[in-house]
Design goal:
695 residues; 0% strand; disordered N terminus; 36 helices; mainly alpha
Length: 695
Amino acid sequence: MQKQNMPKASLQRVFNPNIWFAVISAVIGFCLYAGTMHHEYVLDDVGAITSNPNVTEGISGIPKILSVGMWHFDNVNLGYYRPLSMITFAIENEFFPKNPHISHLGNVILYALTGFFLCLLLMKIFRNFHPVFSFIVSILFISHPIHTEVVANIKSRDEILAFLNLIIALLLFLRAYKNSKIGFGFLISSCVCFFLALTSKETAMTGLIIAPLILFFTYNFSVEQCILKTIPFLVMIFIFQILKYEMLGTISGVIPKDIVNYPYTEAGAKLSSVFLIFFHCIKLIFFPHPLSYDYSYNQIPAASFSSGAVWLGVLLFFVSVYFCFRRLPKRNPLTFGVLFFCVTLAPALAFVFLRGGILAERFLYAPSLGFCIVATWVLGSKLRKNYYLIQIQNLKSYIIPCTLYIVLILLCSLKTVDRNSIWHDNMSLFSADVNSSHNSCQTHRHYGSQLIDAGIAEKDPVRKKDFFERGTAHLREAIRINPHFGDAFFKMGVAYQTIRRNNDSAIFYYTRAIHEAPGFAISYNNMGILYETIGKQEMASYYYNKAVEANPYFPDGTKNYESHKKKTGLDIKIFPSSVNPDSIEFSTPEKNRDFQFYYKLGTDYASRGDYVNAARCLEKSTILNPSFIGAYVNLSNCYGLLKNYKKNIDILNKVLYREPNNVQAISNLAVTYELLGDKDKAEEYRDRAKEITGK
C-alpha cells in the first residue's frame, strides 16, 4: 500500500527533525503575542481569577480547586472540570496577586511552547517529507488570527494547556512505538501528559482518535493495530471521568435554560444548527474576518433545513467525511489534515447538537491545524514532488509556492497583531465587537454595561450623562434583541440606581431582571441595597436573604446580609406584610393619592411580581397625569408581562402620540409585534428605531 502511494524517494529517506525550525516557531509565536503582556483582565478572567476565592488564595487554594467545577462560584454546574489551568492561576496569584500582566506572559510562553512541540510532532509525523513542510505548517498555525481569543484571553489557558499537553503526549506516544519493542517509559509519560490535557479541558478526549490516526500515518501499522495500541489513552479517559464524577457528582452537568448561550435548544433546531455552525467554522478558518469574542443570541440565528446555509454545511460536512474515508489508504498530508480538522471540531459540533450551544472562536483552535496542513499542501502544488527532498539547486522552482506562503503568513500575522490590540481591556474589546457582532444581545449588553460602569466612575456631569445615554441605548438594544434578557434589565437598574438616581425606575428594572433571571443573585443584592438606602429595612432584609438563597457563594450578598442583620436585627425570609401595597393604598388619604403615589405603588406591586395590580395603579397614574411618560412605559411593560399584547400596543401608541421619537416605546413595539408573530411590523419598528438612534 505504501509503495503504491509514496514516491521512492520517500521510502529511501527518513528526515531527522530540525530543532531550529521548532525554535523559530516558538520565537515567532512569542513575538506575535508579546504585546498582550500589557493587557488587562477581560471577559471571564474576572470570574475565573480575580473573583474566584480558591484562585486568590494562591497555593493553599489548590486542594479546593481540585474538588469543584470551573464555575462553582457562579452557582452553576455545567460539568466543566478543568483544574489544571485554575491551578496555574493560583500559583501566579501566590507570587503576583491579581497581576494580569504576569498571567498574560504565562499564556504567551505556553503558546510559544506549543509552536515548539507542534513543529517537532509534525516533523515526526511527516518524516518522509523535508522538515520545511512541517515548519511552514507550524508557522501558519502559529500566526492564524483565529487563535487571538485563546491567547489574549487569560481564562482560555485551558485551551492552550489541553492542546499543548496533547501534542507532547502524542510525541511521546510515537516514540513509544518507534521500534518493535514498546518503550514503556515513553508510553507511561505519554499517558501522564494525556491525563494533564484532560484536566485542562475535556476536548482533549479527541486524542483517543488522533493517537491511532497519527500511528497510522507515521508507521506502517494496520487500523486494528493502531486502535489496540491506543487502549492506554482510553484507560486515562476512564480514570478522568471517575475523578470528575467524584468531584462534581455528575459527568454531563446541568444545562441551564438560557437562550443567550444555548439558543438552538430554545429554537428546537439543534440538528440543523450543527451544519449551520459547521459552515460558519469553515468560513472563519478560511477567512478570519471579522472576528468577534461573541456569537451568542442572535448573531447566528437558528435555521431549519430550509436554509441554504444549512444545506451548504450539510454538503461540506459529508464531502469532508467521504473524502477522509475514500482517501484514508493514501496516508498523505492532505487526508491527514482534513481528518484532523473534522476530529478536533467534533466536540464543538457535539456542543451544538447536545446542548444547543453557540459558536466560539476558541473551538477552532485545534482544528485550525488541520486547515494549515491542507493549505500548505494545496498551495505547494508545484512543490509537491520536492517536499520529499528539497534541493538548493532547484530554488527557482520554489518561487511561486514560497511567495504564496510568505504572503499568507504575513497577512495572518498582521491580522493577529491588529486583533491583539482590541483585546487590551473590556472597553476596547466590547466597543469594537459590538459592531462586528451587532445582532448579538450579549455584545450590546457587555458594551452598555461597560459604559454604565464608566459613567459611575466619571466625575464630569456632562460626560456622566453621555455615558448613561449611550450605555442605556445599548442595553435597550440588547433587550430589543432578547426581550427576556435578565442581565440587561439588571444593568438598566444599576444605571438608574447610580447615575440617573431614579429609585422607582431602578426597582422596576431590578424586578424585571429577577422575573427573567430568578437565579441572578446580584439583582436581589442590589434591590436590598436600594431599599436599605431609602429606609425600607424590612424589604432590604428580604432581598438580602433572597440573594444568599439564590447564590450562597456570592460574597457581596453574604456580606450585605450579615451586615444588615447585625445592624438591624432583621432576618426577613417572607415578603414583609407590613409594607404590603394593599395596606399602603387603603391607609393613605385619598387627597394624597396623586399620580406619583400611584406610580410608586404600581412599582411596588411590580417588585412583588403582581403585575395585575401594578397595571391597575399605573393606569390611575396616567389618568391623573396624562403627560407622565414614565408611567405609560412601565404600564406597557406590565401588559407585556401579562401577555396582554393588545393593551401593550395601545399604551405604547399613546406614548408615541405624545413623543413620536420615543426610542424605548418604538423598540418595545418591535418586540411586541415579534412576539405576536408579525415579522413585517416588527421589522418596521426596528428600522424606525435605528433611524432615530443611527445604530
